[in-house]
Amino acid sequence: MVKLDFEKTNGLIPAIAQDAETGEVLMLAYMNQAAFHETLASGKATYYSRSRNALWKKGETSGHVQHVREIRVDCDHDTILLKVEQVGGAACHKGYKSCFFSMIDENELKIVEERVFDPKKVYK
Fold first, then answer.
1. Most Cβ neighbours (<10 Å): which of 19, 27, 54, 62?
2. Coil, strand, or helix at residue 3?
3. What is the mean predicted confidence (pLDDT) over 2-26?
4. Which ranges constitute the DSSP H helices of 1-124?
């Protein structure tokens, strides 16, 4: 069994989701040991929601599931990279393909991506 270092980071490790086809970084979330094991067992990305203090199965509400195609572990065993197939074209709960839809331009934050879906219609 794969041993990740959950102790070093108080039980949560960063989990980066990357589009398996394009390499685009979609999001950063966190996993505890239970979320990691559920991801391994189901093949679908499961994270730990710090705001809800509970496991969060990506796409449970929106249908925008992440099918895990590959899992990589960093050299310290305290960060993982999930290469995923993103269902529905959007990983971000604000309706964008990537959570990184803004960039700093001339010291201002500007949205540089198009919205894929309207979150008001998806999250009621």
1. 27
2. coil
3. 96
4. 33-42, 119-122
The pLDDT of residue 101: 97
Backbone angles phi, psi at 36, to 5 degrees: -65, -45
Query: In the predicted model, is pLDDT for residue 74 greater than 90?
Result: yes
Q: Is 1 a residue whose pLDDT tops 80?
A: no
CA distances, 48 to each of 18, 29, 52, 102 (Å): 17, 8, 8, 24
The closest alpha carbon to 122, from 49, 47, 51, 61, belongs to: 61
The span from the first CA to the last CA of the chain, in angstroms, equals 39
**Which residues touch 45 (CB under 8 Å, ≥6 apart)?**
15, 17, 39, 57, 58, 65, 66, 68, 82, 84
CATH of span 13-91: 3.10.20.810
CB atoms within 10 A of CB 75: 6
Measure the CA–CA gap between 83 and 17, rounded to whole angstroms.
6
**pLDDT on residue 2:** 83
Structural domain spans, the chain: 13-91
